[in-house]
Fold:
Amino acid sequence: MVVLPPLQYSIIKALAEVNEPIDADSLASKVGKRAEDIMRDLEELRVRGLISIEYRLVTRVTLTDLGGEYLRLGLPEERLVAKLRELGGKASLSELNKLVGLSREEFAAALGRLRRLRVVNLSGNVINLTDNEGELMNYINELKSFLSSIKGTMEYAGKLPEPVEEARRRGLVKVHQVKKLMVTITQEALNLYRIGELTSARVITSLTSADLTSGSWRSGVFKEFDLAVEVPLRPIRRKHPFIQFLNQIRDELVAMGFEEVKDEHVDAALWNFDTLLVPQYHPARRETDVFYVENRLKPRETPVEVMERASEQHELVWSYKWSRDEALRVLLRTHTTLVTIRQIYHRGPGEYRLFSLDRVYRPDTPDPTHFMEFHQLEGIIVGKEVTFRNLLGFFTELANRLRLGKVYFKPAYFPFTEPSVEGYVKHPRLGQLEVFPGGMFRPEVLKIVGLSSEYKVAAWGVGIDRLAMVVLGVDDIRTLYTNNIKEIDSMKTPIGVV
Amino acid sequence: MPTIEVSLRDLSSIARVDLTPDGLRDIVEVFKGEVTDVKGDYVAIELNYDRPDLFSAEGLGRAIGIYLGSRSIPEYNVDGPATKLDATKAPAYRPYAYMAIVRNVELNDEAIRQLFQLQEILHRDYGDDRRLVSIGLYDLDTVKPPFSYVTVKEATYRPLGYSESMTLTDVLNVTEKGKAYSSLVKPGEYPLLIDDEGKVLSFPPILNGEETKVTEATRNVLIDVTGVEPELMKRVLNIMVTSVAERSRNPVIQSIEATGANSELTPSLNWININVKLKDAEDLIGMRLEPNATTSVLMRMGFKVSDMGDSINVLAPPYRIDVHSYVDVIEDIAIGLGYNNLEPNLPPPTHFGSKHPVEHLSSIIRDLLLGMGLQEVVNFNLISDEVMRSIGLINFVKLSNPKIKDYSALRSSLIPSLLLTVKVNQRLVGKLEAFEIGDVVELKDNTAATSRRVGVLLMGDGYTLTDGLSVVKSLLKALGMAANLRKCGDKPFIPVRAVEVLVNDSRIGCIGEVDPEVLVNLGIEKPTVIGELNIDLMLSILKSLH
Structure:
């Protein structure tokens, strides 16, 4: 027994009754549908071997508006002869033209034709009807009977009737080649139908609760899912991919035993530079490299002992006169080392690992890899036994967790660390990426914030935006900070693989 | 970072070894440098601030030669004093001056180029653009010692590069250097360096004299430093003297006795003596060190060393002004061993890690808002101060030196950022439901304070305060907080369609329909509801609940 959906069953039934090729339009009207509504069913029946489909070229002839008008009012030459006869078979050209109601072109063409067939002759300005109308009448009758026979539009599978070319030339019909879909029932289907092996059943495209409770699903057939049809995509409301990336970095640091700390975005130069032994004349402290604050703000915290020790160490190491006022200038932090150095001041001795992942500010000229605001991943490992190799080990482990591959190290310089290092990785597309700057805090720096000399501190500050750009497939750093819904939609979701 | 340009041929001759661009690439890494460009014989190298002795071919070639073993660490003898420098009448605002002499030099065009390059980079990156230290080089045979560093109201001399004499005032007004550095001198109290006959060597820190300049014919060089930081000046003088000495087969260095604010003989060319305990080096690097291997590494890095058993006595040459303490020597041990030869080693943590509580709560709030179908957006903390003021915010951090007008302040609220978000998206989507979690900087008692906020935004026809409050109340309910509402007249909302949100009687934020006047001024054509809650306050409320 072959079970078909009701529509497909009626298609087979109609085809079995015709039992010869039939075009899709006629078939559709037999089952009370439009051709486009049965196409998918025809395809399913064909795939099941119950029908065969072929395409046939036919010529479609369609009556034009002009053809319709001539059919209704008569051809111009016919109307001209009739009017002439009404006028007694003789008239002046101008009079006839005025009375017959044809356009100038129609009148001229009709007159030409009548003269060629010798139905009329001209003597001077006067037109005379002859008795020679036989040929014209044949022409007119043949053309008009063809025009009325197509009833608006007509299709021809084989040879075209004679007057088609003349009617087309005179603009009375339009002629197109059309491909027609012809459907035939297969012998196998015909046999099944005749012996009653084909039946129809309800098709289930979407199971309902009522189907389940009534049990009606048992008598239905499930519509086979069509993989060729594209499904619509759902709009996603998701975490901003950059935020998601930053939170994944946080998770890695937490897993490595680091405690997250935060601090102020706006603070005294003391914490951003002076505790870190950056000399007050250093180019990195100039207005081209730091955003200073216009408001007259009080620095948050400027402990006397830190100020004194900063002055002492700066003069000892850099040999210049340290200025208290310069240290009290309020600025937008240029790095998050401000966060970790103050943590050391407040926490003092101990064994701890801290990190900060936050925004910093520098007056860089914006370009695809620089902006005036960006993120740093800052961290310290504090303890009595902390070594430079631990720092290299931290970079190696972080690179491993971020799937960055092998880290290479080269000597670097920061005023507050010694030894200092720059770790870089080799990216297949972007080449050498310098991503891991760090070092061991100088003893002078630790002295300024009051950490006992038994303790050592490995410190690092990674510019995380460059990595985010690689992971999120973004070519411009500003896109990381986008509020544009379309840009957010186009960003990759960070899934932990670079 | 400073970039120097050197001739490979000149550098090779100083290093006494044939250098190729590729070979140079590897070696300069040891000195924290990077070859950034090669053009024929000329190589551009980006260096770090810490080794000013490498800012020209003389010092870089010397370091490379010693590192590769093609030359030895130089010795320096100082004769003298050859003459005097009277600085007793120096200007009070720029009181110090020192001098030194290097004899028997042979200078070609390239050597002169290198010495001027060194002088310029030291001025810029070490002397705070001549404010702290200014350097001058002269042909000794064009002047008559002794010298004086004096204060004058006005004087006339022929400045370097000019064919005519001019007054000091004209030098400041006319010459390029004069215009650039005039702020470093006081009108009518001009510093001047003159010889015994009153001939002007230099108008420091502005411009030297044309008649005393160093040329290829110069055999004996006079060097001066003037400025405000005597120790820094003497260190810089050491670098200049030892670099000029590289241009002589048989340099004779002579000191000059300065009198005045700081009377002393310069250059000192003292070696910097540092005792490094082997254990300190082992503890800092994190590995056992063989004394023999360590001393040979230090010699390659350019130190004189003597093994004292459990410590190494290190003498750093006078030009190594970056060496301040034992850690600077230890870094050179690690560099000499090769950073990539040190095995990375991170022991497991001794404590559990944790996220900051503010980030923890932010994540929970983010998940809840996403669950309500809002999209997360991000904005910069930097914002235009005009936008801030246009919505009635007046108390915020303004930059004194903004780079771009659109980023001239720090936001004190997320509301302006969310309005900019509406502006960007109003034509891209019909409706928008979005939120931002971010930091703002408030001013409290004249002190800047960072604060974490969450902002909610509903944009499009049909949204009212009711929809905004639905989001806020659902959020607070999910966090276990009961919210009370009270009408408020906060900007930038329609006065009768805004409320403040209170939890336990304290205000944690506000929400309202944005005033159409504000929307129109910002070029926004869609009705907008915005709310903002303070996550720091929510965190302390949640802490008090538990």
Remarks:
- The domain at 65-174 of chain A is CATH 1.10.10.10 (Arc Repressor Mutant, subunit A).
- The mean pLDDT of chain A is 91.
- Chain A touches chain B through 95 residues (CB under 8 Å).
